[in-house]
Amino acid sequence: MIVILKPDADLQTQNRLIDWIRSQNVEVQLAQGQRQTVLCLLGDTEQIDAEQIAAWRIVDAVKRVSEPFRRSGRRAHPQDTVITVGTARLGGGHFCLIAGPCSVETEEQIVALAKAVKASGAQMLRGGVFKPRTSPYDFQGLQDTGMALLKLARQETGLPIVTEIMGIGQLPLFADVDVIQIGARNMQNVELLRAVGQMKKPVLLKRGLCATLRELLLSAEYLMTSGAEQVILCERGIRTFDDYTRNTLDLAVVPMLHELTHLPVIVDPSHATGAAALVAPMALAAAAGGADGLMIEVHDDPVHAKSDGAQALRPKEFDALARRVFAVREAARG
Ligand code: PEP
Ligand code: MN
Predict the structure, then answer these.
(1) Domains of the chain: which residue ranges?
(2) Residue 238: nearest ligand to its CA?
(3) For 304-329, how does the pLDDT look when each residue is reduced to its tens digit (9 = 90+)?
(4) Which letter, b or e, does each residue of 190-210 get, where b requires 16 or more Cβ atoms within 10 Å of its Cβ?
(5) Which of 83, 237, 261, 300 is most exposed by smallest CB count within 10 Å?
(6) Ligand 1, closest atom to CA 234?
(7) Which of 140, 206, 248, 308 to mutate to test ligand 1, by most ligand atoms within 8 A of the CB atom?
């Protein structure tokens, strides 16, 4: 950590600051420039609160040299983490297609879609039963009934299930879920992150609508310090000024996250674009860009879907896309 002092910093306060830092068991080295003094903090600086130092009036800026990604960071764990769920594998060169409807609606719908996406090569089934809708007047999900239907589809196909938890009160219902999804809106719900982490299950953590990568990785840290080891990160688009897409797909985060973390990174082109016509091109781009998997919404009757119909692929469209995704993966292997 580096602390840059203001040009007019008085010696007395400077010495008090240095004493205070040293009292935190961190060594301080001084670099005296012509105008400004820089303090180089050496040792276990991660336990120091940068904001506490910035609060000193004589401090101009505080910069961390290393990020506090103790568990999710590459430095802590140089090899890629490979996550295994049933027969599906993600990370370290393994790729996984996760597909299914935005919301579980009926037994016929979820079982038929599960069979269809499995036949196309999907290795996990997604389906929302607790839906974080923007409006309280929109369909909120089938909740416990939906969970039972999702499990039935798992039983019929053998596909592991991925579904979103919205609050800690729902935890008992998720004991038997293969991958617990934390949605974009809850990425920084610390209480939920801690409680889900304690379940020690695989977690799919979506990037928040306005979250930086640092914030995403710190949320992964909450899960991991609470007990979760298998965390999948998901880029699902962020909010920008674009007016023709639901969100802006930030694809560069895939290689960037691969540099920062050993955790697998997948892309959700459905929520990132909001439009079925844009899903295939972005899915292919993500596969070419090194994503460890894709999560895609599929519906047999998008026009009558209870949520996100505009971005849903029909099973036939998903089947055609899946073939192209696998071909792109082969070609990109190099
Ligand atoms: C979803 O996957 O159904 C969902 C609500 O996604 P997000 O949290 O990315 O909006
Ligand atoms: Mn959706």
Answers:
(1) 2-63, 83-333
(2) 1
(3) 999 999 999 999 999 999 999 999 99
(4) eebbbbbbebebbbbbbbbee
(5) 300
(6) 9
(7) 206
Residues within 6 Å of ligand 1 by CB: 102, 128, 132, 164, 183-185, 206, 236, 271
Which superfamily does 2-63 belong to? Phospho-2-dehydro-3-deoxyheptonate aldolase; domain 1 (3.30.70.1140)
Radius of gyration of the chain (CA): 23
pTM value > 0.90: yes
Which atom of ligand 1 lies nearest, measured to the CA of 308?
3
CA distances from 53 to 10, 25, 253 (A): 16, 15, 31
Pocket test for ligand 1, best of 271, 295, 296, 298 (most atoms within 8 A of CB): 271
Per-residue model confidence as pLDDT tens digits over 214-268: 999 999 999 999 999 999 999 999 999 999 999 999 999 999 999 999 999 999 9
The CATH homologous superfamily to which domain 83-333 belongs is Aldolase class I (3.20.20.70)
Distance 132 CA to ligand 1 centre (A): 8
- Location of structure tokens 């506490």: 52
